[in-house]
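Hey team,

Filing this mostly as a record. A colleague (T.K.) asked me to run one chain through the structure pipeline before their review meeting, and I want the input and output archived in the tracker in case anyone asks later how it was produced. No errors, nothing strange. Just documentation.

Input sequence:
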Amino acid sequence: MTPLQEAAELLSGMTRAEKAQVLQRVVRDLGDAFPGIGTHPAVSGGEPCIVRTRIPVWVLEQARRLGTDEATLLHSDPSLRADDLANAWAYVRSHRTEIEQQILENERE
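Output structure:
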């Protein structure tokens, strides 16, 4: 049996939650699960940002929570693209706790 066949057999016996955990692990292993999102210690304190910009993902998420629509976000910074927002929203979905913490920390400052 090949590794792929073994994985398929294992997946068939898993719950949806277990499958989601496997998927998250696979995505992490691929390394570029969030193209367009990067971290660098010298940029925004190492918080995940949109590449080519210094815009932290948490800032975009907080703006969205406060009612700012995507068109307004895109208009506010000409370097921001629609695919940047799509990547940011995917990152938020996958790293909700991290983003929540960053929002809280930055609200206190």
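Quick notes for T.K.: The mean pLDDT is 89. The radius of gyration is 17 Å.
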